[in-house]
Amino acid sequence: MLKKIGFGLLIALIAVQFIPTPKNINLTASATANDISKGIPVPDDVNTILKTSCYDCHSNNSIYPWYASIQPVAWWLNDHIEEGKKEINFNEFASYSLRRQYKKQGEIIEQVKEHEMPLSSYTLIHRNAVLSEPKKLALSNWAKVLKDTMQKKYPADSLKKKQ
Q1: For a disulfide at 89, which of 26, 69, 85, 98, Cβ 3.0-4.6 Å?
Q2: Cβ contacts of residue 124 below 8 Å, gap of 6+?
Q3: What is the secondary structure of 13-62 as a DSSP string?
Q4: pLDDT at residue 161, as a whole number
Q5: Rounded distance, CA 135 to CA 151, Å?
Q6: pTM of the model
Q7: Which residue has the higher pLDDT, 117 or 161?
Q8: Is residue 10 part of a domain?
Q9: Which residues form the domain of 75?
Q10: Is residue 13 one of the residues assigned to a domain?
Q11: What are phi and psi of 88, to 5 degrees?
């Protein structure tokens, strides 16, 4: 009985390998037309942090590890990337409304401060994505300066959620 169950599971595992999973790869020039760096000044050190620790899940172009082609891991990774892009997509950031940009700057500060991003499941394998204290400080300070600048430059009602 156990042999039949094991054999059935093996067949199912092999069969799901043939179900395609979409990849988050867009290498066209238009993919970065609305990149955060197009609408907001991003210092080189912060840009490096974003690309190393954030862009795989929060952009239109992920760099996939070798195991990303194995099911069900590919489904799990795709789900993480889709959820990440819904929260914030750095390749689309310049197309966001001022209100959403302002809100996302605050969320960057909070997520970094609370050690919620990058996800521990990501940094477990991508050790270079771990945010050291200096990197967290650089990222938070940059987001805070941008948020403060937006607050001074734009009317409060264009940035705050209407009641």
Answers
A1: 85
A2: none
A3: HHHHTTS--------SGGGGTT-HHHHS---HHHHHHHHHHTTTTSSS-P
A4: 64
A5: 24
A6: 0.81
A7: 117
A8: no
A9: 21-159
A10: no
A11: -160, 135
Measured on CA atoms in the order 72, 74, 79, 80, is the torsion positive or negative?
positive
- Reported as a single tens digit per residue, the pLDDT across 91-105 is 999 999 888 999 999
Q: What's the CA gap between 25 and 158, in Å, rounded?
A: 34
Look at residue 146 and tell me if it is in a domain. Answer: yes
Concatenating the DSSP letter of every residue in 61-85 gives -PPPPGGGGSTTHHHHHHHHHHHHH
Query: Domain total for the chain?
Result: 1
Task: Examine residue 112 and state whether it is found in any structural domain, yes or no.
Answer: yes
**CA–CA separation, 38 and 7 (whole Å):** 54
**For residues 93 and 39, what is the distance between their CA atoms, to the nearest angstrom?**
8
The CA distance from 42 to 50, in Å, is 10
